[in-house]
Each structure stands twice: as C-alpha cells, then as structure tokens.
Hints:
Blueprint: E1 3-8, H1 12-23, E2 28-34, H2 37-47, E3 51-55, H3 63-71, E4 80-85, H4 91-99, E5 103-106, H5 111-123, H6 130-141, H7 146-156, H8 161-171, H9 176-183, H10 187-200, H11 206-215
Parallel strand pairs: 1-2, 1-3, 3-4, 4-5
Amino acid sequence: MTIRVVVADDQVLVRSGFTMLLSGEPGIEVVGEAGNGAEAVALAASEHPDVILMDVRMPVMDGLDATRRITGDESLSSTRVVILTTFDLDEYVHEALRAGASGFLLKDTLPVDLLNAVRVVAAGDALIAPRITRRLIEEFARRPGPAAVAAAHAALGQLTEREREVLELVAKGLSNAEIAATLYVSHATVKTHVSRLLMKLEARDRAQLVMIAYETGVVMPGAT
C-alpha cells in the first residue's frame, strides 16, 4: 500500500529536497507541499495523508498550531504528524508532543533514515530516532501537564501487570518484535497489548504512550 505524504516547510529548497527524495522511493507518494501551517491543515483535510512532515517555525500558522488542529480533527485520526527540527529543543517541540505529534526528524537526517522514518510512523510500530526522541521525552517529562498526569494516573489502574510491562518497554523505545522477544510472547500478542494500551490510556499512538509512561513515573528519565 502506498504511503501518502505531505511536506510542510516554509523553505522552498528544504521542502523540494524532501519531496524529491520521497517521490523517488517506491511505495511513497507526496500528495502535497505546504509553505505554512494553514496550508498544511488544508492539505490534511483534502488529501488525508498518512504522514505529514511538519516544520515548526512557519508564517501564517506555525507547525504547533497546525499539528494541534490536525490531531484534534477526528476525521484525520489516521494521519501522523512528524516534526522537522534542527534539534533546538525549544518549547515549540515539547508543546508539539502534547499537541499530538508522533515523532521527530532532524532536517539533516540521512536520506535512508528519512525514508525509514516515514515508513515506521505510517505503520505506527515505533518511535523515530530513539536517541533524539529520548532526550526530548526526558526534557518533556520534567514539566508535565497536571491535568494530563492526573488522568493518566487514574487510567493506569485499569492496566494488567503484563500491560504495564509492555508500556514500560514501549517507553524504552522497543519495537513490537523486540518486546515479543523480551517477554517470550508472539508478535500478535504484543500488538494486542499495545492496542489495549492505546484504548485504555486514550492515546493516539505510541508517542503518546511514551509521554504517559514518563509523566506517570512508569519509566523514569535516564532509565535504560
């Protein structure tokens, strides 16, 4: 199945570079380019892409507002937003996670890593660039949203012991296959546990499961 992608960046050369790379790859189709957040939101609504590569700082509407609008639209529940960042670790990036972003990419990422990241996010199987994501998550976890934490703590009481184990391993960046090997269960069993975690914790995707795990102390910053 073809992965449909929208590229949103106000720098024409950056946007064109990503588009050329993605368009040349079998199984990936760029269905639109946006020069600002408002255009990204409009394209999301008209094209229903699987993945949006979203720059943070853009005119008219920044990537944060655009991400919040896209992830808040129930009709776009299958669309995943990946933040394009220069690794500034600014407040925009952390707020984008709370707004529902599913991952991060460095703008200078290697082409093979970009292509892999798009496929990974479209499949919903793992976080992008664990090295980068972990640092962002640990910083994010130091300043959680009180209301979100209270709700997550309450939801944790619904989890079985095995589901908490799976949540911890998801938060540590393990893929479903790695979790299956760690717990000596089948890949299908892990997928079932992850699906139940998403439902019970009302999380959009694995990225939000990781946020919940760190915010509630299931996994502590710096844990390996």
